[in-house]
Amino acid sequence: MNDSLGSETSASTTLWAPTPERIAASRMADFQRWVRQNRQVDTTTYIELWEWSVGDPDAFWMSIWQYFDVVHSAEPTSALADDRMPGAIWFPGARLNWAENLLRHANTTPDAIAIVAVTETGDPVETTWAELEHKTANFAARLRDLGIGPGDRVAAVLPNIAEAVVALLATASVGAIWSCCSPDFGVKGLVDRFTQIEPTILIGVDGYVWNSKRIDRRGIVSEVVSALPTVRHTITVRHLNPDATLPDAELDFVELTCGNAKPRYEQLAFEHPLWILYSSGTTGLPKGIVHSHGGILLESLKANALAYDLGPTDRVLIAASTAWVVWNMLVDTMFTGCSIVTYDGNPSANAPDTVLRLCSDFGVTRFGTGAAYLTLCEKAGAEPGKNYDLSALRSIMTTGSPLPDSTWKWVYDEISSDVLLGSDSGGTDVATAFVGANPLDAVRTGELMGPCLGCKVEAWTEDGISVTGQVGEMVITAPMPSMPVAFWNDADGKRYHDSYFDTFPGVWRHGDWITISENGSCQIHGRSDSTINRGGVRMGSADIYDAVEALPEIATSLVIGAELSDGGYHMPLFVVTNPGYDLNNALSDKIKKVIRTEVSPRHVPDVILAAPAIPMTRTGKRLEVPIKKLIQGIDESVAINRGTVADTDVLQWYVDYAAKFRADLVDQR
User: Fold this and answer.
1) Could you tell me which of 125, 179, 560, 620 has the fewest CB atoms within 10 Å of its CB?
2) Alpha carbon of 547 to those of 449, 592, 634: distances in Å?
3) Is-contact 561 532, C-beta < 8 A?
């Protein structure tokens, strides 16, 4: 890049630091002691451990395998046999099963609680590890009876409920490939995804709960089944109406989990497909991202036990729908022996901080959520630390978008002064984080603690030069085991290659702007493909959001920087005001001033507009790039896939704005 990208941010403030006792008791410190004894590698700080993990990846990942005593039936010949990207070869010769490793805790703690299932309207239901293993074994046996085996696809339309966990574990047990979408998707969104993978089984739910409303989805599931000619059997979870009579053509989920089957796990190659997740699909059909049994297993053990310091005494609640990779990551926490809370409902039902109340009710020790949820609670004036007992809470993960500085402080003022708040940045692409928290370092405002173990993250200029202390493209220069083994229906690997490796051959370009400091801490500045570039000076959209949304009058916002075909540039800022405020000249001037003084005078928007809402994907991401394309005159059918949009009425407002803007341009000419 010819000019710097970034903002004039204030110096970070230390908000929390672990005590020496907490550090020594952490699983990461125990891993350091193990490495010292078994690998003769002595590390005392996190950054030293990270440097070893990326400097000798074969030794590091084999250490993860050995330290956690991975359950397997055949030994690998090495950890990393080929480090090409794409095309890395991990743990050749190994045979294992993801589900078997997760359910090993049924042997050691059979009577401990594995899942607490919570809804907005019903009583919580607990499932022990023994019961989870029993239900999984029976469901897996019935899948085999139905002819399902390795490589077959099992599609599901399920909310965040315990039955979804059972179905995933059973699917993995038989070596079939799991693919799940949230029941709030429309028919087109579901069919767009599932048609690609040609599932043999579809597991559907009769409905779900949202804002205390019971939302029937039987008709939607029926339409989807009709559109999928490969589906031979439909299984129904009677979530809303457990006593309802099912049509003859549908199998009952509960019945399939009953019986006396013994656990049986297909032994699979390390790279055998585990599940298919989907890209956002905002500009075309969603891409099917395939992850492996072994890759997700190793990454999950490393992340949850070491980075997040989880173990059998922990309980995890992550507010996520099954459409978001974070739901898969919730299930993955169970590799540590911890219990999880599944929640079917609106995180803000009845009150903005409802999910934090659930953390109190169920003794949650780790809470995960999107950054937007914490900001919503902050702006609503919530005081969860005052109103609820959150003394059990040890750590909070926030992800999905950068966390505003004010919200960092709010967490420590209003949730707990003694909690590790970690902002993680990763993606559906790898089902984990690239950069994030660890139990050894302090929490500082606006900073991600550093690259994750085994993840060789760098900031590069557009010429491929690694830089420190300035903004660059976030790249990963060495393979990770949880990188996709493939995209679905991408036989020659071209779509996979073009998605990550086209800009810098052999190097993963993720599409985020990042600054890596001398001490290894990081800041994420937003998506590089939605960069605001005024007069050659680039700015991440997140920097503008941080400044604008810190104003008490502003609820949320969307900024677009669109290069126009005539050489012009259009930079609108759309804002949604909080109740009691309207966008007037005084507020517009206030917004311009805060951008000018806290971000950059070059990035004051051309126009500030009051919008009814901000357009979002179903996974909670702002639709920056599609709106930019609309403003640039790209046809709507090419610019965006409506099936991925959370609220198409909101989208239409922006479509109309872009059309009027383009018409006005023509008139001016």
Assistant:
1) 125
2) 22, 10, 30
3) yes
